[in-house]
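pinned: reference chain
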Amino acid sequence: MNSALLSSKKMNWCTPQKFYDELDKEFSFVADVAATEKNKKAPICYTPETNGLINTWNFGGSVFCNPPYGKEIGKWVKKAYEEAQKGVTVVMLIPARTDTSYFHDYIYNKAEIRFIRGRLKFTDESGVEQNAAPFPSMLVIYNNKK
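pinned: its structure tokens
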């Protein structure tokens, strides 16, 4: 197994392009709110420098969010929930950690949850596929239907 996948130093798990493309067909994303210039998936993006946690996600369409998978992930989930309350459709790709406070406070019974079968193979910023993630993943979808 790739030791970088287990390292707490690696917080940016880049979304596999094919996986994103399938979601984009369904949601027609206009923005990627947790990206870098190298790995952004949508025309509009927030980078660490422009900080999606402090700016609006209302770009007139659906937004995609694959946030850093570190201690700050709960802040991203809370932000997604808050933006959804303002009418923004948000699709988040995060680890399936149903025991966390953020799951119970901002996801459970508040969003559509799609558990990903198997383990995703994330990429590095250049798009090179890595080994399978050591954790299960889920999509959290806020779309004003719940």
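why pinned: The mean pLDDT is 87. Helices lie at 3-6, 17-27, 73-85, 101-107.
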